[in-house]
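Researcher: Here's the sequence for the chain we discussed earlier.
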Amino acid sequence: MPSLPLHRELFPPGVIVHSGAPQAIEGTLFAEEEAQIARAVEKRRAEYRAARILARRGLEELGRAPVAIVNAPDRAPIFPEGTVGTITHTRGFCLVALASSNDFLALGADAEEATPLKEGLFETILRPEEEAQLRRSVSGDKLALYAKLIFSIKEAAYKAQYALSRRYFGFSGMRIHLDEGSFDAELMLEAPPFSRGHRFRGTYRIESGLILSALALGPDALR
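Model: Thanks. This is the structure I predict for it:
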Protein backbone atom coordinates (compact mmCIF):
# COMPACT_ATOMS: atom_id res chain seq x y z
CA MET A 1 0.00 0.00 0.00
CA PRO A 2 1.39 3.44 -0.87
CA SER A 3 2.44 5.67 2.00
CA LEU A 4 0.33 8.59 3.19
CA PRO A 5 2.78 11.20 1.85
CA LEU A 6 2.25 9.77 -1.63
CA HIS A 7 -1.50 10.16 -1.20
CA ARG A 8 -1.10 13.75 -0.13
CA GLU A 9 0.92 14.44 -3.28
CA LEU A 10 -2.14 13.50 -5.31
CA PHE A 11 -4.00 16.59 -4.12
CA PRO A 12 -2.99 20.24 -3.68
CA PRO A 13 -2.45 21.78 -0.22
CA GLY A 14 -5.69 22.26 1.67
CA VAL A 15 -7.08 18.82 0.84
CA ILE A 16 -7.08 16.33 3.73
CA VAL A 17 -6.48 12.69 2.79
CA HIS A 18 -6.95 9.54 4.86
CA SER A 19 -6.56 5.97 3.67
CA GLY A 20 -6.12 2.42 4.83
CA ALA A 21 -7.19 -1.19 4.54
CA PRO A 22 -10.95 -1.40 5.24
CA GLN A 23 -10.69 -4.42 7.52
CA ALA A 24 -8.12 -2.63 9.70
CA ILE A 25 -10.14 0.56 10.23
CA GLU A 26 -12.15 0.42 13.43
CA GLY A 27 -15.06 2.56 14.48
CA THR A 28 -18.83 2.71 14.69
CA LEU A 29 -21.43 4.05 12.31
CA PHE A 30 -24.41 6.31 12.87
CA ALA A 31 -27.79 4.58 12.83
CA GLU A 32 -28.73 6.05 9.45
CA GLU A 33 -25.46 4.78 7.99
CA GLU A 34 -26.04 1.30 9.40
CA ALA A 35 -29.48 1.33 7.81
CA GLN A 36 -27.96 1.88 4.36
CA ILE A 37 -25.87 -1.29 4.54
CA ALA A 38 -28.19 -3.50 6.58
CA ARG A 39 -28.48 -6.03 3.76
CA ALA A 40 -25.01 -5.57 2.24
CA VAL A 41 -22.42 -8.32 2.05
CA GLU A 42 -19.49 -8.11 4.48
CA LYS A 43 -17.05 -6.73 1.88
CA ARG A 44 -19.39 -3.85 1.09
CA ARG A 45 -20.07 -3.26 4.79
CA ALA A 46 -16.33 -3.06 5.54
CA GLU A 47 -15.68 -0.60 2.70
CA TYR A 48 -18.65 1.60 3.62
CA ARG A 49 -17.70 1.62 7.31
CA ALA A 50 -14.04 2.39 6.60
CA ALA A 51 -14.93 5.31 4.35
CA ARG A 52 -17.15 6.89 7.01
CA ILE A 53 -14.59 6.49 9.77
CA LEU A 54 -11.87 7.98 7.57
CA ALA A 55 -14.18 10.81 6.51
CA ARG A 56 -14.88 11.71 10.14
CA ARG A 57 -11.13 11.84 10.81
CA GLY A 58 -10.90 14.33 7.97
CA LEU A 59 -13.83 16.34 9.31
CA GLU A 60 -12.09 16.54 12.68
CA GLU A 61 -8.99 17.98 10.99
CA LEU A 62 -11.23 20.57 9.33
CA GLY A 63 -12.63 21.48 12.73
CA ARG A 64 -16.02 19.97 11.96
CA ALA A 65 -18.27 17.90 14.20
CA PRO A 66 -18.71 14.21 13.38
CA VAL A 67 -21.87 13.61 11.36
CA ALA A 68 -23.45 10.79 9.40
CA ILE A 69 -22.38 10.60 5.77
CA VAL A 70 -25.08 8.74 3.89
CA ASN A 71 -25.42 8.12 0.18
CA ALA A 72 -27.92 10.07 -1.89
CA PRO A 73 -30.31 8.16 -4.19
CA ASP A 74 -27.69 8.49 -6.95
CA ARG A 75 -25.23 6.76 -4.55
CA ALA A 76 -23.00 9.83 -4.21
CA PRO A 77 -21.95 10.45 -0.59
CA ILE A 78 -23.47 13.51 1.03
CA PHE A 79 -20.78 15.51 2.82
CA PRO A 80 -21.77 18.13 5.40
CA GLU A 81 -22.47 21.69 4.31
CA GLY A 82 -19.29 23.69 3.94
CA THR A 83 -17.22 20.71 2.83
CA VAL A 84 -16.51 18.77 -0.34
CA GLY A 85 -15.17 15.25 -0.51
CA THR A 86 -14.63 12.08 -2.46
CA ILE A 87 -14.47 8.39 -1.58
CA THR A 88 -12.86 5.54 -3.45
CA HIS A 89 -12.02 1.94 -2.63
CA THR A 90 -10.74 -1.16 -4.29
CA ARG A 91 -9.69 -4.54 -2.96
CA GLY A 92 -7.97 -4.02 0.41
CA PHE A 93 -7.75 -0.23 0.09
CA CYS A 94 -9.93 2.80 0.85
CA LEU A 95 -9.18 6.51 0.40
CA VAL A 96 -11.18 9.55 1.46
CA ALA A 97 -10.31 13.17 0.66
CA LEU A 98 -12.03 16.23 2.10
CA ALA A 99 -11.67 19.98 1.93
CA SER A 100 -13.49 23.19 2.77
CA SER A 101 -15.94 24.34 0.11
CA ASN A 102 -14.43 27.81 0.56
CA ASP A 103 -11.24 26.47 -1.01
CA PHE A 104 -12.46 23.88 -3.53
CA LEU A 105 -15.62 23.34 -5.55
CA ALA A 106 -15.29 19.55 -5.85
CA LEU A 107 -12.89 16.64 -5.45
CA GLY A 108 -12.56 13.39 -7.35
CA ALA A 109 -10.48 10.28 -6.71
CA ASP A 110 -10.35 6.72 -7.95
CA ALA A 111 -8.32 3.70 -6.84
CA GLU A 112 -7.91 0.56 -8.92
CA GLU A 113 -5.74 -2.52 -8.71
CA ALA A 114 -2.76 -2.08 -11.00
CA THR A 115 -3.78 -4.95 -13.25
CA PRO A 116 -4.29 -4.91 -17.03
CA LEU A 117 -7.64 -3.86 -18.43
CA LYS A 118 -9.19 -6.69 -20.43
CA GLU A 119 -8.77 -5.91 -24.10
CA GLY A 120 -12.42 -6.70 -24.65
CA LEU A 121 -13.22 -3.57 -22.63
CA PHE A 122 -11.02 -1.23 -24.66
CA GLU A 123 -13.86 -0.27 -26.99
CA THR A 124 -16.09 0.61 -24.04
CA ILE A 125 -13.54 2.59 -22.01
CA LEU A 126 -11.30 4.19 -24.65
CA ARG A 127 -12.15 6.63 -27.37
CA PRO A 128 -10.59 5.55 -30.71
CA GLU A 129 -8.00 8.34 -30.55
CA GLU A 130 -7.06 7.38 -26.97
CA GLU A 131 -6.48 3.77 -27.96
CA ALA A 132 -4.49 4.84 -31.02
CA GLN A 133 -2.29 7.10 -28.89
CA LEU A 134 -1.68 4.34 -26.35
CA ARG A 135 -0.73 1.86 -29.08
CA ARG A 136 1.77 4.38 -30.44
CA SER A 137 3.38 5.08 -27.07
CA VAL A 138 3.29 1.80 -25.10
CA SER A 139 3.09 -1.89 -25.87
CA GLY A 140 2.84 -5.30 -24.28
CA ASP A 141 1.65 -5.41 -20.68
CA LYS A 142 1.94 -1.62 -20.38
CA LEU A 143 -0.74 -1.10 -23.02
CA ALA A 144 -3.47 -2.76 -20.96
CA LEU A 145 -2.17 -1.21 -17.73
CA TYR A 146 -2.34 2.29 -19.18
CA ALA A 147 -5.79 1.52 -20.54
CA LYS A 148 -6.73 0.75 -16.92
CA LEU A 149 -5.15 4.07 -15.92
CA ILE A 150 -7.38 5.93 -18.37
CA PHE A 151 -10.38 4.11 -16.90
CA SER A 152 -9.33 5.27 -13.42
CA ILE A 153 -8.78 8.87 -14.52
CA LYS A 154 -12.18 9.01 -16.16
CA GLU A 155 -13.79 7.70 -12.98
CA ALA A 156 -12.06 10.35 -10.85
CA ALA A 157 -12.79 13.22 -13.25
CA TYR A 158 -16.39 12.11 -13.65
CA LYS A 159 -16.91 12.24 -9.87
CA ALA A 160 -15.55 15.78 -9.68
CA GLN A 161 -17.62 17.17 -12.55
CA TYR A 162 -20.75 15.31 -11.43
CA ALA A 163 -20.64 17.06 -8.05
CA LEU A 164 -21.39 20.30 -9.93
CA SER A 165 -23.15 19.29 -13.13
CA ARG A 166 -25.18 16.26 -12.04
CA ARG A 167 -24.74 15.16 -15.65
CA TYR A 168 -24.58 11.45 -16.42
CA PHE A 169 -22.50 10.33 -19.40
CA GLY A 170 -20.41 7.41 -20.54
CA PHE A 171 -16.67 6.93 -20.94
CA SER A 172 -16.67 8.53 -24.38
CA GLY A 173 -17.71 11.81 -22.76
CA MET A 174 -14.10 12.54 -21.81
CA ARG A 175 -10.80 12.40 -23.66
CA ILE A 176 -7.70 11.88 -21.54
CA HIS A 177 -4.34 13.50 -22.26
CA LEU A 178 -1.52 11.89 -20.26
CA ASP A 179 1.66 13.52 -19.00
CA GLU A 180 4.20 12.07 -16.58
CA GLY A 181 2.26 11.82 -13.33
CA SER A 182 -0.49 14.22 -14.44
CA PHE A 183 -3.38 14.38 -16.88
CA ASP A 184 -5.97 16.56 -18.54
CA ALA A 185 -9.50 15.20 -18.82
CA GLU A 186 -11.18 17.01 -21.71
CA LEU A 187 -14.98 17.15 -21.86
CA MET A 188 -16.35 16.01 -25.21
CA LEU A 189 -19.88 17.23 -24.48
CA GLU A 190 -21.76 19.94 -22.63
CA ALA A 191 -22.13 19.41 -18.88
CA PRO A 192 -23.19 22.79 -17.45
CA PRO A 193 -21.60 24.64 -15.77
CA PHE A 194 -18.81 23.09 -17.86
CA SER A 195 -18.62 23.53 -21.61
CA ARG A 196 -17.46 21.10 -24.26
CA GLY A 197 -13.67 21.30 -24.40
CA HIS A 198 -13.26 22.13 -20.71
CA ARG A 199 -10.16 20.47 -19.25
CA PHE A 200 -9.80 19.15 -15.73
CA ARG A 201 -6.20 18.90 -14.52
CA GLY A 202 -5.25 16.11 -12.13
CA THR A 203 -2.55 13.72 -11.01
CA TYR A 204 -2.03 9.97 -10.98
CA ARG A 205 0.33 7.39 -9.50
CA ILE A 206 0.96 3.73 -10.30
CA GLU A 207 2.70 2.24 -7.30
CA SER A 208 2.53 -0.59 -4.75
CA GLY A 209 -0.03 -2.50 -6.78
CA LEU A 210 -2.45 0.42 -7.11
CA ILE A 211 -3.51 2.97 -9.69
CA LEU A 212 -4.55 6.22 -7.99
CA SER A 213 -6.11 9.14 -9.85
CA ALA A 214 -7.17 12.42 -8.30
CA LEU A 215 -8.16 16.00 -9.00
CA ALA A 216 -9.38 19.03 -7.10
CA LEU A 217 -11.49 21.74 -8.71
CA GLY A 218 -10.57 25.14 -7.33
CA PRO A 219 -12.63 28.33 -7.55
CA ASP A 220 -11.18 29.08 -11.00
CA ALA A 221 -12.46 25.78 -12.43
CA LEU A 222 -15.56 27.50 -13.79
CA ARG A 223 -13.68 30.29 -15.58
